[in-house]
């Protein structure tokens, strides 16, 4: 990577905040820490805590003269967002301080009125379902495809999208998730053309693909493929602080004023300036270094993939990158994300994740089969060395313990059905049904309709949404997840021994 001094650096928001810090301002305004001064002279205060937090607090300001306003930007925030739109290829970019969650909510609130219909990929993040609920909209779910090699979900086939649009021509939008949490993606350009031909919006949750389109090795971004509005978690694969995200918009199909109005409702009226500044700094880094920024992480992931080919105990999903470039329908694996599993079924993904943690290697997530490793842009050769050493040690443990293959259980999404009937999402929901609810053992709930969501986290994709019929396959899968230490959100019983359902009589 070239010397920092040779790169042009312009981050208007970040530069303004650091200049304010250097001016030694006297604060008679919120926040209460007063640029960190409130903790500076406390006797007995941990020195490390003071130094750590003061470094952040010095740029943690509020809307004073010169710092602009995220909800009505006209100065440095407006300039920073305009520069971000140029880098990411959008017509307009909104900075988000509530993660991709608020971007998903805002897209649906801006696109829908109560009673409107949206065609939604079934394995969407929980925030999409919450957005439908807040908008008072209905959803027709289209089921994801299975990748034959990994048995992981990818985008619904384009023919499924066409079928849904033909059956529900009044739908306002199609909402897709690409890439998946596992880093699997399909080029969206054919989808965008077909969806627009039906007069509908293409809204995309690209939370895990903020880096897409920024290096020749990466797939195209959803904006580059023609989507109308796209949310990206800048903090996931780029250097922004946690909760820092961006919402990119292009074209005239979605109303940007409606998006801005929605964001004013659902984002804090006191947004975090360190988070906003980190978004501005991330964009400045991309503008200064370009694709060079990703070379180290790509190299580290390639080196690890090459090493794993020679290991008998572990394997990873590998996709032919040339095939991915030549075929728009080809499934791509994110070059800086590795999907790892124990090759002979002796360890679940949860087991492997826990063993890796014993050796100081912390994965992004795990499921019953896989561990997801996010190399990102900064993984180094020494990081790869530690990971390889950990896996060598785990392979030896497996042999010493004489572990046998486990029974494999798959996620019970109904892939034999390509499309659901319309599902109504309202805030009153099924909890207020006239015949009431009851809590019963999960093991006895097949055929009943749940009044609470069941959401393994991560990845935050609901196995059951409120009002969905419970199947025997779903019960078995939830039980398997809980046996291996998974955590579920949404359910009143965190152990998932019981579940609350509609009364039947």
Summarize the structure.
By secondary structure, the chain is of the alpha+beta class.
Describe this structure in words.
There is one protein chain. The chain has 505 residues and is α+β, with helices and mostly antiparallel strands. It has helices spanning 12-22, 47-57, 76-88, 99-111, 126-135, 158-167, 189-197, 222-225, 234-237, 256-266, 273-289, 295-308, 321-326, 349-358, 381-401, 472-483, and strands at residues 92-96, 117-121, 138-142, 145-146, 153-154, 173-177, 184-185, 201-205, 229-232, 245-249, 314-316, 332-333, 337-342, 365-366, 371-374, 423-424, 437-441, 455-456, 488-489, 498-502. It is built from 16 helices and 20 strands. It has an eight-stranded mixed sheet, with helices on both faces. A four-stranded antiparallel sheet has the order 11-13-15-14. Strands 4-5 form a two-stranded antiparallel ribbon.
**Count of beta strands:** 20
User: What's the average pLDDT?
Assistant: 91
- Individual helix count: 16
Estimated helix fraction: 25-40%
Main sheet, how many strands, which sense, barrel? 8 strands, mixed
List the quaternary state of the chains: single chain
Judging from the principal axes of the Cα atoms, what is the shape? globular
Low-confidence stretches: 1-5, 320-328
- Strands in their spatial order, largest beta sheet: 1-10-9-8-6-2-3-16
Strand content: 5-15%
Rg (CA only): 24 Å
Topology of this protein?
Elements (H helix, E strand, L loop, with lengths): L11 H11 L24 H11 L18 H13 L3 E5 L2 H13 L5 E5 L4 H10 L2 E5 L2 E2 L6 E2 L3 H10 L5 E5 L6 E2 L3 H9 L3 E5 L16 H4 L3 E4 L1 H4 L7 E5 L6 H11 L6 H17 L5 H14 L5 E3 L4 H6 L5 E2 L3 E6 L6 H10 L6 E2 L4 E4 L6 H21 L21 E2 L12 E5 L13 E2 L15 H12 L4 E2 L8 E5 L3
Helix pairs in contact: 1-11, 3-11, 4-5, 4-10, 6-7, 12-15
């Amino acid at each position: 990577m070239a010397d920092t001094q040779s790169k042009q650096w312009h981050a208007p928001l970040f530069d303004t905040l650091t200049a304010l810090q250097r001016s030694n301002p006297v604060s008679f305004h919120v926040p209460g820490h007063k640029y960190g001064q409130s903790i500076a002279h406390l006797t007995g205060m941990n020195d490390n805590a003071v130094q750590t937090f003061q470094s952040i607090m010095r740029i943690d300001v509020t809307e004073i003269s010169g710092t602009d306003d995220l909800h009505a930007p006209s100065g440095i925030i407006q300039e920073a967002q305009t520069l971000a739109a140029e880098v990411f290829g959008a017509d307009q970019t909104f900075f988000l301080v509530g993660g991709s969650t608020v971007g998903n909510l805002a897209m649906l609130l801006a696109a829908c009125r109560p009673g409107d219909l949206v065609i939604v990929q079934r394995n969407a993040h929980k925030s999409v379902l919450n957005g439908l609920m807040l908008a008072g909209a209905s959803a027709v779910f289209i089921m994801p495809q299975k990748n034959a090699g990994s048995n992981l979900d990818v985008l619904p086939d384009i023919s499924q999208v066409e079928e849904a649009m033909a059956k529900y021509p009044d739908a306002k939008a199609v909402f897709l998730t690409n890439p998946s949490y596992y880093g699997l993606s399909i080029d969206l350009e054919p989808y965008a053309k077909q969806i627009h031909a039906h007069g509908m919006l293409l809204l995309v949750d690209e939370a895990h693909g903020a880096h897409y389109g920024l290096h020749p090795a990466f797939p195209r971004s959803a904006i580059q493929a023609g989507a109308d509005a796209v949310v990206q978690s800048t903090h996931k694969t780029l250097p922004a602080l946690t909760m820092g995200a961006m919402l990119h918009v292009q074209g005239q199909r979605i109303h940007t004023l409606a998006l801005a109005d929605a964001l004013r409702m659902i984002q804090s009226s006191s947004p975090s300036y360190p988070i906003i500044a980190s978004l501005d700094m991330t964009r400045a880094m991309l503008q200064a270094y370009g694709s060079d920024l990703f070379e180290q992480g790509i190299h580290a992931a390639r080196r690890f993939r090459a090493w794993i080919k020679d290991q008998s105990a572990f394997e990873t999903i590998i996709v032919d990158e040339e095939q991915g470039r030549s075929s728009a329908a080809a499934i791509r694996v994110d070059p800086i994300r590795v999907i790892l599993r124990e090759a002979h079924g002796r360890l679940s993904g949860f087991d492997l994740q826990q063993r890796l943690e014993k050796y100081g290697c912390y994965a992004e997530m795990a499921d019953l089969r896989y561990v997801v490793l996010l190399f990102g842009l900064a993984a180094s050769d020494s990081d790869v060395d530690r990971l390889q050493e950990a896996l060598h040690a785990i392979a030896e443990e497996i042999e010493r313990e004489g572990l046998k293959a486990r029974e494999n259980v798959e996620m019970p999404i109904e892939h034999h059905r390509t499309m659901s009937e319309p599902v109504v999402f309202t805030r009153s929901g099924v909890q207020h049904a006239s015949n009431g609810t009851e809590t019963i053992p999960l093991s006895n709930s097949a055929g009943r309709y749940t009044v609470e969501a069941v959401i393994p986290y991560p990845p935050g994709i609901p196995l059951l949404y409120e009002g969905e019929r419970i199947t025997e396959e779903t019960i078995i899968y939830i039980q398997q997840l809980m046996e291996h230490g998974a955590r579920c959100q949404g359910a009143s019983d965190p152990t998932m021994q019981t579940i609350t359902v509609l009364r039947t009589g």
